[in-house]
Design goal:
The protein contains 11 helices and 8 strands. By secondary structure, it is α/β, with parallel strands linked by helices. Strand 1 and strand 2 form a beta hairpin. The protein folds into 2 domains: 1-81, no CATH class; 93-286, P-loop containing nucleotide triphosphate hydrolases (Rossmann fold). Helices cover 47% and strands 14% of the residues.
């Protein structure tokens, strides 16, 4: 923590962010260190108390959360939170969830995959899970996540068939549209379908080029669609040229949706922003 040493003991430190902490309590620790809070003195102590930490094969694992109500109390007086509604005068943001039909085969595969996972966990039982080794736990979690990710990717690809006509309808009304997906294939499909009308931001696009694509969307009337992977285009960009935001598929973390929505819903937006979530009927989207 060279920065802590550099500012000196007499300095007053204010930490400001317009982006919420979206992950785990452990992400608070470096901020508490910078602010010279008592909780920032020892990471191990902090992790044991608030991160449900345990000693793993390669050291302390602090991916969890524990005693959150106590942590909230501890942060009173040092952490000040203001919502966008409290500090900005913005037009409304309207969210809607649109049920879309998915090919029965895809829906069946999704349901079967999720059911199989739940049944597998149930058969093993909590007692048996408690006895597994760290390596076994990691293997089990990796397998579960792999199965779910594969199923979600298939669903995302299937839903593009419904997303495309929805976007086309918005374009006919003279709108610019942001479309987000967690996966690469739907973004590439949208870019290919709409051709010169679309730009795309994915994890394959260098960070240095993403702002250029955002500027084209903002300033060029012929570019009507920006399709993006939610982790690549959902933060750090000003995309207020759009007031229509569409989510082709859903992320694990709801805050990622909110951050992506706010590419359009931010300072400079003069119109109501419509956010539409495409929800696959009878699929994991409804869990």
């Amino acid at each position: 923590m060279d920065l802590v040493k550099a500012v000196g003991d007499e300095a007053v430190i204010h930490l400001l962010t317009g982006t919420p902490l979206t992950s785990r309590p452990r992400d608070l620790f470096p901020l508490l260190q910078l602010a010279r809070h008592a909780l920032g003195r020892s990471f191990v102590s902090f992790a044991k108390r608030y991160c449900d930490a345990y000693k793993g094969e390669y050291g302390w694992v602090a991916d969890g959360a524990s005693n959150i109500e106590e942590l909230t109390v501890q942060l009173h007086g040092i952490m000040l939170r203001r919502t966008k509604a409290e500090v900005l005068d913005l037009p409304p943001k309207i969210r809607s969830w649109l049920d879309v039909e998915v090919a029965s085969r895809v829906a069946r595969e999704m349901s079967e995959a999720v059911t199989e996972l739940l049944q597998t966990i149930s058969r093993r039982g909590q007692a048996q899970l408690a006895d597994e080794t760290e390596a076994e736990r990691r293997s089990r979690q990796g397998w579960i996540m792999g199965q779910l990710t594969t199923a979600r990717n298939r669903l995302a690809i299937a839903k593009v068939r419904s997303t495309i006509p929805f976007v086309e309808n918005a374009l006919e009304q003279g709108e610019k549209v942001l479309v987000f997906s967690c996966f690469l294939a739907p973004v590439n499909t949208l870019r290919k379908h709409f051709g010169q009308k679309a730009v795309a931001i994915t994890g394959e696009v260098p960070a240095s080029e993403r702002q250029q694509l955002a500027d084209r969307f903002q300033e060029d009337d012929s570019v009507q669609i920006l399709a993006a992977q939610i982790t690549a285009g959902g933060v750090g960009l000003n995309l207020t040229a759009a007031r229509q935001v569409v989510f082709n598929d859903l992320d694990w973390v709801p805050v990622n949706h909110w951050q992506a929505e706010d590419r359009a819903y931010r300072i400079g937006q003069q119109q109501a922003v419509n956010v539409t979530y495409m929800v696959g009927s009878g699929t994991i989207d409804e869990f």
